[in-house]
Design goal:
six-stranded parallel β-sheet, 6 strands, 7 helices, binds 3-methylbut-3-enyl trihydrogen diphosphate, binds magnesium ion
């Protein structure tokens, strides 16, 4: 049975779900947030230590302003309403990605959420916000160069947003789309990848459990030869 420490999820399909149900993409984002809460709670029950959720990519700025504004205001409202509850459940929140393009109210809300929950140890939930893996890797190279460090694997990893976080064991992408969309390209070298047909708002804990059970049985070889 494989140990499971870290699950990463590309929560895709909100827009299509909202269009189908109410002809409104943003409705899908609202429902997607509900799925996210259920998956966080279930991850705690499953004793998963790290959950990394792709919420907004560096490429998502190409979307209409109305959708971008909706997504950030959804996050702001969620943090305002739920941060105490998350803290009481001993959840540690961390935001990974560049803060450069984020507005000041988002920056202060996410920094406050991180500060408040910093010492919690039930689960660490990483929200990838304005996250792009290529930028992350490039920035790491730049920091290494600036600090006159040697170009080693450990220096590279210590300058990623995921510093000190183990690589994901499982990557899930919902929404019937089979690509990585610039998510954790370095970190998923040996991650087990599960593509799910369902759109994110329809994804549920039974689907999650099925993936976890399948993962546990996989023969993870990491390049070696493991007799089963
Ligand atoms: C994923 O759902 C959530 C975000 C990118 C914020 P999408 O909004 O990409 O939904 P689809 O893929 O268009 O259905
Ligand atoms: C990836 O989904 C980003 C998030 C889930 C936040 P996209 O919907 O942006 O990816 P593409 O455009 O289909 O590759
Ligand atoms: Mg999408």
């Amino acid at each position: 049975m494989n140990p499971l420490n870290h699950v990463a999820i590309i929560m895709d399909g909100n827009g299509r779900w909202g269009l189908k149900k109410r002809n409104n993409r943003n409705y899908g984002h609202t429902q997607g947030l509900k799925t996210l809460e259920k998956i966080v709670n279930h991850s705690i029950e499953k004793k998963i230590q790290y959950l990394t959720l792709f919420a907004f990519s560096t490429e998502n700025w190409k979307r209409p302003n109305s959708e971008i504004n909706f997504l950030f205001s959804l996050l702001n409202k969620f943090l305002k309403k739920k941060i105490k509850y998350l803290h009481n459940k001993h959840i540690k929140l961390k935001f990974i990605g560049s803060r450069k393009k984020l507005n000041s109210s988002i920056i202060s809300n996410i920094s406050n959420a991180e500060k408040l929950t910093k010492k919690n140890n039930q689960i660490q939930v990483n929200i990838a916000l304005n996250y792009g893996s290529r930028d992350e890797i490039l920035e790491s190279f730049k920091k290494i160069k600036k600090n006159g460090l040697n170009l080693t694997k450990s220096n590279l990893e210590n300058n990623l947003y995921t510093k000190k976080i183990p690589d994901p064991d499982i990557l899930i992408r919902t929404g019937n789309t089979h690509r990585l969309s610039n998510f954790m390209l370095w970190q998923i070298a040996y991650t087990e990848i599960f593509f799910v047909e369902k759109l994110w708002p329809d994804f549920n804990i039974r689907d999650f459990d099925k993936i976890i059970n399948n993962f546990k049985k996989i023969n993870r070889r990491f390049g070696a030869i493991n007799e089963e």
